[in-house]
Input
Amino acid sequence: MLAVLMAGLPTVNSGSFGWMIHWWWYWFLVLFAFWIGYGIFSNMWIAAGATWLQNGKRWVDLYRLTEVNIKAAGTNHMLRLKDGVGREVSVKLDAVQRNQDLWDLVYNGILHAVVTGEANPPNGARTILKLPSR
Output
């Protein structure tokens, strides 16, 4: 479909196949569009179960968290979690909080780690996540 549009639109627009003299330019546009699409949609997989959080191929055990932190990434807050086995996940905080059921599962795991003393987030993360202080 994309190939038909990429060949059909310039042909209709110019009324001829003269655009084919510069065919490499259209391949550049196709590759650029693919690169942008890949960047937008490559990390969209976020899922959680009763005891785990998964983002893409990475996952952590929410009830064995040893590190909980928030980092700024441009205009986003990134939630970084690490469990006792060494697995790490980094997700956009607002992407997790948008889905209330997903956020409930994640927050319960974070809260468990903080209350039991397995994780000791910095004060900034405690404030943003509204976690109890020690």
Notes: Residues 60 and 86 are 9 Å apart (CA to CA). The mean pLDDT is 84. The beta strands are 46-48, 52-55, 58-61, 65-73, 76-83, 88-92. The helical segments are 2-14, 23-41, 93-97, 100-115, 123-129.
